TrEMBL record, chains A, B, C, D:
This is Medium/long-chain acyl-CoA thioesterase YigI. Pfam families: 4HBT. Belongs to the YigI thioesterase family. Residues 49-121 form the Thioesterase domain. It comes from the Bacteria. SUPFAM superfamilies: Thioesterase/thiol ester dehydrase-isomerase. InterPro entries: HotDog_dom_sf, PAAI_dom, Thioestr_dom. Gene3D superfamilies: Hotdog Thioesterase. Residues 137-157 are annotated as: Disordered. Keywords: Hydrolase. It is an enzyme of class 3 (hydrolase). Its EC number is 3.1.2.20. It comes from Rurimicrobium arvi.
Length: 157, 157, 157, 157
């Protein structure tokens, strides 16, 4: 992934109201991989203390979108066709970590697997795994569309 | 669904930090059905204007949990095993409406379908459909457990 | 759906080795809906007597492909992007009935719900429900491609 | 996995009418992993030559069932709660290989990922990936039930 694409995706992430709300940090982005960290806030927790499933599903969606986008050139946009999440273990910890990897980088359809971990003093717990289908909306044939690039670099951001 | 169960679920909903954040209103709850409305806020929107997929996935999870819980007696708790969402149309509108219906009300496993609509001046758009698998954690054999009832009436709330 | 399309899809179905093996009958096809019946054979049954999940998953795939194809003009071909099946009740009966309906008939992506019923002397049991994502491969812009039409009318047939 | 469990699962596999029909061979079974090979037969192929999606979905279901069962003691039985398959690449080759691994070996719910490869002279193609949710029906508390063991060792076999 070139510098321009990385910058484009990082700017899109920093502008996302949803990511700001979650206090999400884009740790790693590039070549079909994305890692996002979300420190725990009160509204994210169920009464029993673990992160709720809604925050986990949100992270699956967003991290998959950025992973798919990072495997494509500048100004490629994606929309989520469908996502499927399996919740594996209670997400108990001080932060959530999403790690999303592109499995299939197709011309139109990209398939991504995102794994969500809850991280605490005793290490990481595998909270959820997923499969996400994304569709590329534009950018394939026209690698430069500077105007919209400033607006919505990753479709699900 | 009796009065006590309805009240238990409504109280749980009103205590949920996530639902408060979304400004979500529990419109209808009972007998395996649940309707939730979320008025649009800035952080929910993608740059192009539609509700983002993360809010939609969150609503799928929460509405399915309440629908499943509403088909069971007081003090039955659920956890989400897995969820799968298909995004059908851009969710353009002033509010999101989730309507979740129990398809299978099993002893251990409940299966729910939640449909998400974007509502605006020109009517409703079918934004997403889903299938959600929930597992009952407790309450089957012991219909009254007042202590925990005050804490987490619906597992995914 | 015009006569030519109906005939094209029925011919494709009758040529499918998989459908012949299952003894499957295409009962209804048209306008985004498809019904297929499969009489029970020994190899389809688990030791306990119900239809096995593999035959059900196969029917989900095939019926969704024909439903999607029936909403498009002659010589439109589909491939299955992904499918998700929830098994609801033991599929006990003398035949399986698949009923598939298009939920979203998009330009590239179609989303179909297929429900599978086990039919016996005491009526129908809802054995499984599903969501299937299909992608149109060709035919959108060129409604007539007679040569390939004879070969593979429905991508998953 | 002890000898007795391995033998129990291999006997169940060899008795399965569905597996006999597919000419399927159980290559590896044990400790939450299962590998099955299916040589190509005419009825499995679509007109264009690749394995059809129905055979792939069947293999996902069966291999996941055996993988889940292999992580449990003798006389544990599973049923498939739901399965989700993403088709990644055309399954062109002389045989299909299913490799299924348990991700979560829970008390009630097991989650398995099955990957399907098409194998030919030029190597393996990643045809499909999946996530499968299985529920244990029995065997947890009573490790020996010799009578039923002879009948249906793996629920989805």
């Amino acid at each position: 992934m070139n510098e321009e694409r990385q910058q484009q995706l990082r700017e899109g992430f920093s502008r996302s109201g949803m990511m700001q709300l979650l206090g999400a940090q884009l740790q790693v982005i590039g070549n079909g991989f994305c890692e996002i960290i979300v420190p725990r806030q009160d509204f994210m927790a169920r009464p029993a203390g673990m992160f709720n499933g809604a925050v986990i599903a949100s992270l699956v969606d967003v991290s998959s979108g950025y992973a798919a986008a990072s495997a494509k050139p500048v100004d490629s946009y994606f929309t989520t066709v469908e996502l499927k999440v399996n919740y594996l273990n209670p997400a108990i910890g001080e932060s959530l970590i999403a790690r999303a990897s592109v499995i299939k980088n197709g011309k139109v359809i990209s398939v991504v697997r995102a794994d969500i971990y809850a991280s605490g003093p005793e290490g990481e717990t595998h909270a959820a795994t997923s499969l996400v289908t994304m569709m590329q909306l534009s950018g394939k044939k026209s690698p430069r569309q500077p105007k919209s690039a400033a607006e919505d670099p990753a479709a699900e951001a």
